[in-house]
Amino acid sequence: MITPLQWIVDISPTIDKDNSTDKKNRFISIAKSEVNSSLFTDSDTYNLALAYYACHLLELSLRDGNSKGIVTQEKEGDLSRSYGGGNNKNISMNTTQYLDSYNNLLKVRVPNFYISSGS
Predict the structure, then answer these.
(1) Residues 5-60: pLDDT tens digits?
(2) Are 96 and 70 in contact (CB under 8 A)?
(3) Which residue, 32, 14, 16, 12, is CA-closest to 24?
(4) Is 74 among the domain residues?
(5) pLDDT tens by residue, 49-103
(6) 83: CB partners within 8 A, 6+ apart
(7) Domain limits at 55?
(8) Cα(96)–Cα(24) distance, rounded to whole angstroms?
(9) How many domains does the chain have?
(10) How many helices and strands, by DSSP H and E, does the chain display?
(11) Quick check: 7 and 45 in contact, CB under 8 A?
């Protein structure tokens, strides 16, 4: 069985490297309270869902209170980050690539699953 911590190493080495194990475990605990285990047929898929959701929460925790929107471009050397239009009502300020991955995983398991912006 692959644990949520092991999945985090695979899906987001940056989040893994930039956060302590204790902090990642706290966010996994939050994810456990928000991710319905009955929607997943096996423990590895459930743990992957927990990891995606925990990464989403960890990513949001790095944003300041005045969210700049979603990251539309990022560069590593001499860090450069561009954000999507904060004034565009079609862009959710609380979305991340990890939430998108979680929602895609969920869509496969829940027929007619409807996702509205930022849910």
Answers:
(1) 999 999 999 999 999 999 999 999 999 999 999 888 889 999 999 999 999 999 98
(2) yes
(3) 16
(4) yes
(5) 999 999 999 998 887 654 555 555 666 666 665 655 544 444 455 788 999 999 9
(6) 68, 69, 70, 71, 72
(7) 4-109
(8) 17
(9) 1
(10) 5, 2
(11) no
